[in-house]
Amino acid sequence: MTEQQGGFELVIDSVSKSFGARHVLRSVGARAQTGQVMVVAGPNGSGKSTLIKLAARIVRPTEGRVLWKLDGRELSTADTRRVVGLVSPDLNFYDELSAIENLRFFARVRGVGTTDSAAKGAIDGTDSAAKGAISSTATKAATRTGSRESAESLLDRFQLAGRGDDLVGAYSSGMKQRLKYAFALMHNPPLLLLDEPTANLDERGIALVRDTIAQAGASKCVVIATNEPEEVRLGDILIQLRA
Ligand SMILES: Nc1ncnc2c1ncn2[C@@H]1O[C@H](COP(=O)(O)OP(=O)(O)O)[C@@H](O)[C@H]1O
Ligand SMILES: [Mg+2]
């Protein structure tokens, strides 16, 4: 596979994962780059969510390696918050904050800031070309998510127009799922990881997610854990796990 200029690449290199005596993944290998969708399919308990967390580098493999490359240069886990956009059933918002407050809070935690000065502070001291490239993406994203209007336009996109000031605790499960997309995409990450992307969604929400995957699939590296045949079909690369 040739490396794209300006491209991100996810490399899953002979990865095994055990929890104690339980072997969940055995020597899984695959790669995907910007412009590709990787699908992880398999029955319940086969390790789909574990593989998504390994790809996010929030879980370490027992054997093998997960690498991220930008223009062929390796990125470190220090870049995690900027590299990864994650939608997962394991992700939770603060119920006692509004949707916009949650987005702003997580923008700050990521260091992509809610103001230009916060963003600049977070990206000071870039020490490699690769990190610089990620940071310039983060700067643009911070400028975009910094204002209330930009947060609202993200909410509009995910069918939450006018609901930004409602407490997340008052959101339905479908609204929370759509808010996860706003959260995952607000910093314009090169890697989008979607665990059960259409969980809790109605037909309209499902159509929105499929559009989002199609759009992100052109400009990002996308990994989806799913058993929905319509989503499996979106994959350029398929990892089929067995129970
Ligand atoms: N943190 C953990 N500690 C112990 N076992 C785990 C942990 N995470 C996942 N597992 C186990 O790994 C297996 C795969 O889980 P998971 O990756 O969630 O599968 P899937 O998403 O395909 O349903 C299950 O048997 C699960 O219980
Ligand atoms: Mg799962």
Q: What is this structure's SSE topology?
A:
Elements lengths: L7 E12 L2 E12 L3 E5 L6 H8 L7 E8 L2 E3 L4 H4 E4 L11 H12 L5 H8 L5 H18 L1 H10 L15 H13 L5 E5 L7 H17 L1 E5 L3 H4 L4 E4 L3
Parallel strand pairs: 3-8, 3-9, 6-7, 7-8
Antiparallel strand pairs: 1-2, 1-4, 4-5
Helix pairs in contact: 4-5
The chain binds adenosine-5'-diphosphate and magnesium ion.
The site of magnesium ion (MG) has 3 residues, from helix 1.
Query: What's the alpha carbon Rg, rounded to whole Å?
Result: 18 Å
CATH fold name: Rossmann fold
Attached small molecules = adenosine-5'-diphosphate, magnesium ion
If you average the pLDDT, what whole number results?
86
**CATH architecture label name:** 3-Layer(aba) Sandwich
Strand content: 15-25%
Cα distance spanning the termini: 30 Å
* Count of separate structural domains: 1
Number of helices: 9
> Could you give the order of strands across the largest sheet?
6-7-8-3-9
CATH class label:
Alpha Beta
User: Tally of extended strands?
Assistant: 9
The dominant shape is globular
Which bin fits the share of residues in helices? 25-40%
The biggest sheet amounts to: 5 strands, parallel
Query: Given the helix and strand composition, which structural class is it?
Result: alpha/beta
H/E element order? EEEHEEHEHHHHHEHEHE
Q: What is the assigned CATH homologous superfamily?
A: P-loop containing nucleotide triphosphate hydrolases
Spans where pLDDT lies below 50 across 5 or more residues: 1-5, 113-133
